[in-house]
Amino acid sequence: MKIFVTGVNGQLGHDVVNALAARGHCAVGSDITERYAGVNDGTPVCAAEYVSLDITDETAVDAAIDSAKPDAIIHCAAWTAVDAAEDEANRDKVFAINALGTRYIAQAAKRLNSKMIYISTDYVFDGQGERPWQPDDQNYAPLNVYGKSKLEGERAVANALEKFFIVRIAWVFGKNGNNFIKTMLRVGKTHEVVRVVNDQIGTPTYTLDLAELLADMVETEKYGYYHATNEGGFISWYDFAKEIYAQAGYATRVVPVSTEEYGLSKAARPFNSRLDKSKLREAGFAPLPVWQNAVERYLKEIDWKAL
Hints:
CATH topology: Rossmann fold
Largest sheet: 7 strands, parallel
Distance between the termini: 37 Å
Order of helices and strands: EHEHEHEHEHEEHEEEHEEEHEHHEH
């Protein structure tokens, strides 16, 4: 199968190309830089065919995808800087990438009759309450610009295609980029005490594990909306930080604070990022490993002592 993957300079796109290559698929990676600019770790993504692509350029999208003629597209590229998205100067660009660019890719997929996987987020919901969000919930009410732009991306895919997977994820960490774990490890080196919010609840997602699930999905025709995070229960960012330091052997003390007490974010954050993943099992997909095990494997994968 030939699969076009966007966003390979990022955490998830990097691991998706590697997962596809390991299964013998032909993966074409793309991102906005002239050449692949992610971590150069000798994995298949570094040797895969690479296409420089600005997904906000409809003509360029059509040319790149028509040339590749993929059987499927896994769309990982996105604007993910949640706070920066709130800046007035960035808003048009955020929607151009997350909504308009996604629409261009979906239209190209429709023209070629290609499958498409779109990576979305729990931020499409209002983040309130305690009930885990179901994949087919329709009560959208994004709290911030990022969430609104990703919801528009979802709608662009669903309106254009029948052969689509929309996969919502949360609290992502991977080798190829920055994330909460790397931030905590850096801060823990220089601070004896770290304040972390304990009233935002969800579950982490390891891109290495998610990439395997996406490879499983693209090999099927079990289309629809899905939620995918690691197993292991719902936790707060405070719980996550404590586990990171425990596994890394840091003596850093973690102090729980409320979102209001923390008070540094421009963008409103969801208190409820609980995602119900039972639909994965119902469709026959293997659940992701527990997040504690994912953290353990991740710390072995990265050179975290050099951060």
